[in-house]
Amino acid sequence: MNRVQTGDWEIFQLADIEKLIPDDVLSIREFLHTPSLSCSLYHVPKGSKDMDSAHEEDELYLILKGRGRLRVEGDEQPVEPGTMMYVRASCDHAFFEVEESITALAFFGTAVHRGEHGA
């Protein structure tokens, strides 16, 4: 993977990360991990369903490709390229009814409490 790391920042090329994900299996590839943030590329093949899961971190998905549905704590929403979804820590969630294989960026991070960093 062509990755540039200089001092306090890193540059990643999405095309390089996508090459590491098989097209035909449910997969996740973490490409950044720090104490406060991690980033992964997530792939859900057409016709498959991922397992209901909850995480200890808040999560933000950005759908890059594909179409399907996301269930969060029993609420269901359609997803398509450009959809961004925030899922609070400890909420069960899963992609299902995947009509076109979904590729998404998944960002995991700890919440910033009100009053910190100008929030």
List the helices and strands and how they pair.
Elements: E1 3-6, E2 9-12, H1 14-18, E3 27-33, E4 37-44, E5 58-72, E6 75-79, E7 84-87, E8 93-109
Antiparallel strand pairs: 1-2, 3-4, 4-8, 5-6, 5-7, 5-8
Structure notes:
The chain has 119 residues and is mainly beta. It has one domain (3-112): Jelly Rolls. The protein is 4% helix and 54% strand. It contains 1 helix and 8 strands; from the N terminus they run ββαββββββ. Strands 3, 4, 5, 6, 7 and 8 form a 6-stranded antiparallel sheet that branches. A two-stranded antiparallel ribbon has the order 1-2. The radius of gyration is 15 Å and the shape is globular. The N and C termini lie far apart (35 Å). The model has no long low-confidence stretch (mean pLDDT 87).
Structure described in brief:
With 119 residues, the protein is mainly beta. Helices cover 4% and strands 54% of the residues. The strands form two sheets. Strands 3, 4, 5, 6, 7 and 8 form a six-stranded antiparallel beta sheet that branches.
Index terms:
119 residues; Cupin domain-containing protein; Jelly Rolls; mainly beta; six-stranded antiparallel sheet; RmlC-like_jellyroll; 1 helix; globular; RmlC_Cupin_sf
CATH class: Mainly Beta
Q: Low-confidence runs (pLDDT<50, min 5 residues)?
A: none
Tally of alpha and pi helices = 1
- What is the rounded Rg? 15 Å
Oligomer: single chain
Q: Structural class given helices, strands, pairing?
A: mainly beta
- Sum up the overall morphology in one term: globular
**CATH fold-level assignment:** Jelly Rolls
Proportion of residues in extended strands: over 45%
Q: Write the CATH homologous superfamily.
A: Jelly Rolls
The SSE string, one letter per element, is EEHEEEEEE
**Percent helix among the residues?**
under 10%
CATH architecture: Sandwich
